[in-house]
Amino acid sequence: MPELSDTPRQHDTSATTDVPEPNERASRLHRSDVYRNPARECDVVMKGGVTSGVLYPLAICELATTYRLRSIGGTSAGAIAAAAAAAAEYGRDSTSPGSGFAGLAAVPDWLAEDNNLEGLFKPNAETAILHGLAMEAAKPERNIGHILGSLFSAARQSRRWWLPAAAALPGVIVLAALLTSGTNNLLVWAAALIGVAIAVAGAVVGAAVATLDGAGDALEANMFGLVSGSNAADGGVSLSDWLTDTLDTLAGRAVSGRPLTLGDLWGAGGATAPDIRLEMLATNVTEGRPYHLPAELGMAFAFAPDEFRRIFPDRVVDHMIKASQSTSLESDDDASFGGYDAAAAEVLPGGLVRMPPTGEIPVIVITRMSLSFPLLISAVPLYSIDHSLTTSAPEWERVWFSDGGITSNFPVSFFDSPLPSRPTFGINLRPFHPAHPKQEDERANVYLPRTNGAGRLQWWTRLDTGGGLGNVAAFLSAIFDTMQNWVDNAQMRVPGYRDRIVHISHDKTEGGMNLAMPEHRIRRLAERGRCAGEVLVEYYTTPPESADSDKGDGDTKNRPPRVVSWENHRWVRLRTSMSLCAELIQQMSDGFTEAYEADLFAPIDKAPSYRFANESQRALAQAFMAGTCDLDDPNPPLPNGLRQLAEAFAAAEQANRYVSLDRNAPHPTPALRISPGTPNATQSTD
User: Which tens digits make up the pLDDT trace of 239-248?
Assistant: First the structure.
């Protein structure tokens, strides 16, 4: 458990000139008084990126000095940051040591010291040897000797341990034959060298094959990951253990008792009007789609306590068992969620336990479900019933949840509304642009659009690895990146989105799979994140015309005057939303033919399905589409009903009384579309 305190730690800067000196703005974030009584509110969404998450704590702390965080979301490493931010918001006014945002500001210091970040990714007994090989291969400065040593160690642990020797045998035979031939000339020695090369290459290939064969068994046994998050092979603290205790510490709670739950964050308002809303994405690979957590995680699922104890600390699993056992299916709304069959699920097989009510789910559970980076961090198994099977006795089967970043690494549409009452900030991570290389000033490594037209250009991925197999690998990587991120990438260019997303650049040695980053690199990333939060606060709280609005804002050469602000953002959203609404009204009016009108005005019992609840609801629907007329005034001054409104718009436009609402609207023009929503217990299953 990290020692989180309100005072910034002093670090040795003599070892390297690359360690950033502490600055006043960063140091103040360790004081709890700077977070008291913020006058504004905001939401925030963060992108995934494994160790890139070290960028987020100080960014969140900068926001928290000015804003109360109401809705927080993320995916993968962004989910960890979101959970930590929610816990710190919950503990904002706590006086417990290490709580609140002052405690969150201390997290990067702890991660940077003593290789603590790398130490969180501790392997389990089944994967310890394989983990060592993977860590050696993942280092930017690869040591071939260390990699080969780890490879042969992993091969010796496999069931085909003999393969390296067998594969080297042909080369050994050739070498032995030549050495015993009695001939001594240059050709013999050249052939001997070839024999040595064959033996070495054969041994390496054999070791690789044996390792791959053993890797499959080890990864499957460890739930498809090198690191489960708990029960580390060395008995030490692993990722889930540390994060569980850290969340409780930030929330001002004891680390030995009941874990922080979603219900704690919600407060008296509950799920419908929460004090703090926390949302994440996980990928249900069994169903082949993303899951919106916690909304889609109900009592239609069960878990196996023995499996969960390999992923979470015992106190988390104990709480979930107790909360589930004290819940009545008949009285809990979650029981009807997702087609839950209470009759079939009353008696669960094999020691399975129903998921507790959503409010009793620990924050660490949905966080860890979102952070399951494939093959590095174990997937999370739950159990459910496949209702598409026509068996007489439904069976509970394992359902695998993996990293949320598989389906959306930056769910920037979280918490969005047509006319927002507060800003929803997005924090994106991306490589450095060729035209904007890495700068010593960390503020210059952060980008937030300054004008309405900025941020619209496409981000290119170039195949510049030197040709050959390198470019083939780069091409395949670009394909995977496109499959994973195309929706998020397109969404970031939409007006009303791009002006609220700050982009933090990092190079290949920073974040990502670089688990063994040196201290100075982690501290630089943390400071870069702080600068991102600082820019968001300045742009959205300081008017563009203010002389102090752009202080320290990187390179000032040829920079256009800033337009982006909270006031401008509201105006962009209003113009965009009105344009889209006018288009939707016209489309519905054009499609409202006589057939639809006859359907709408037919008696309730004539509807083929989804009937109106009563006559009042039907009258409301008729008024919504066809309009109503007051009996005392058959010609009301304003059109009412979508059809009359569309007709009035068209008539006015034809008479040149106004131009359409999409003229001069923000571009590129977004589109309204029907997409899958998040199901809930109150929706009809008709």
Answer: 999 999 999 9
